[in-house]
Amino acid sequence: MTNQTQKSSRYHATVILQEITIQGAYANIALRKALPESGLDSRDRAFVTDLVNTTLRNLIAIDHIINHFSNTSTSKMKPFILSLLRISVCQIRYIEKTPESAAVNEAVNLAKQNGYKGLSGFVNGVLRNIVRQPEAPEIHGIAMEYSYPKWLAADLVKWLGNENAKSFCHQSHQPPPVTIFANTHKITVPDLANRLLSEGIEATPLGDEFLIISRTGDITQLPAFNEGLFFVMDPGAVWTVKALRLTPGQTVFDLCAAPGGKSFTAACYMGNQGQVKAFDLHPHRANLIRETARRLNLNCITTHIKDSLVHDKTLKAQADAVLLDAPCTGYGTIRKRPEIKYNRNPQDAKDLAVKQRQMLSIASKYVKPGGTLVYSTCTVAREENIDNVRWFLQNHSFKMRPIDLPNPEAIPYILEDDCLQILPSTYNDGFFIASFTCEP
């Protein structure tokens, strides 16, 4: 990168970080919105994405470092200056390939160029002191080491126990790989790996259905993508669909379907035979599912606009299998969405559990006698998971259905009351899965 390009990249990283941390934007949406308009090339876009996400993963520790060396606390700094210091400290402490002098000089220049000439000396002093004392301050405990609010770190220990909580924080702190599910309606995993290799993409098989891909750039520009040979999917999420135990010809409801990965997986497992009805509250998200299903040539999928909190009497006892992947706190996806750590509060899990129970009650009415209901979340909060399962069994005519378990060496998990709590690991996010049978 040229010196001018580095300035531009760091400016965009600063502005995007400010939008996420000050205005509460989602990181993936803020990046996806800003980068195409930035004028940066693909290499510099990747630099900005890495810089923003690495800063977010380490935000609490970074603020701890800044406060150690600054006479002005982070809570009293101008938003632009705070964001500028954060991305600069990230480069100095967490991104080894960045020359420390470049990080300091560019930060000073950006302060001057964006109306903060009077604070450029302050920025210079703080950052140069950090460079001079690379070991200070000391950081202890999982809350500080992995940048978790103290209340959330304590809740993780309460939910998972000490060792699993430490593992959760460590794994959730790692940048996630890109994993894709082969559209088995069209191609096998080995053939897809060879096809991607011919397109210059490194593809490593992961189990019988997935590939890990790297050096991809924009995957939507790949011929294999546009021919519908794969879709992006998390290897942990697939166990939600496996719990449905689908067979060709069945009718399946996916009640909170967007972005659609579980609907696509279900269609593949059913050999594109039967009906997969993908429901979502938002029309634009339903349209995305429809467009992807068309790209994948999975014509057994239909999309429907529906609020899962509103009972639809016309759907009563219509489905062989119903999947409720309920909206949740999302703690299992922190490695992909690190801003979740800072945007949530202790009450969120309790509030969401109330809505989840409403959704569960409604979803249960759509299951045929003898059919299957799978409840899942991408979190580890007990209020949203095992507590909801126990409540549901006490109040509805369903019984637990045992779940097929993954290889614990590949996908670590906790099993409680026949419920599967998948923990984040190298290749997968965290998910909770419970399967029920509707009693005749």
Overview in brief:
The chain is built from 18 helices and 13 strands. Helix 14 (261-269) links the parallel strand 5 (251-254) and strand 6 (275-280).
Q: Care to describe what's here?
A:
- The protein has 440 residues and is α/β, with parallel strands linked by helices.
- The chain is 45% helix and 16% strand.
- The chain is built from 18 helices and 13 strands.
- It has helices at 3-21, 27-34, 42-57, 59-69, 79-94, 100-113, 120-132, 141-145, 150-160, 162-172, 189-198, 223-226, 238-242, 261-269, 283-296, 340-343, 348-364, 386-395; strands at residues 178-182, 202-206, 210-214, 230-232, 251-254, 275-280, 301-305, 319-325, 367-377, 398-400, 413-416, 419-422, 431-438.
- The strands form two sheets. Strands 5, 6, 7, 8, 9, 10, 11, 12 and 13 form a nine-stranded mixed β-sheet that branches.
- A hairpin with a 2-residue loop joins strand 11 (413-416) and strand 12 (419-422).
- Helix 5 (79-94) packs parallel to helix 7 (120-132) and helix 6 (100-113) runs antiparallel to helix 7 (120-132).
- The termini are far apart.
Name the features.
single chain; 440 residues; alpha/beta; nine-stranded mixed β-sheet; disordered N terminus
What's the alpha carbon Rg, rounded to whole Å?
A: 23 Å
Low-confidence stretches: 1-6
Q: Structural class of the helix and strand makeup?
A: alpha/beta
Number of strands: 13
Major sheet summary line:
9 strands, mixed
What's the multimeric state?
single chain
Helix count from the secondary structure assignment = 18
- The portion of residues forming beta strands comes to 15-25%
| Shape call | globular
Q: Mean pLDDT, as a whole number?
A: 94
What separation lies between the terminal Cα atoms? Answer: 66 Å
Q: What portion of residues is helical?
A: 40-55%
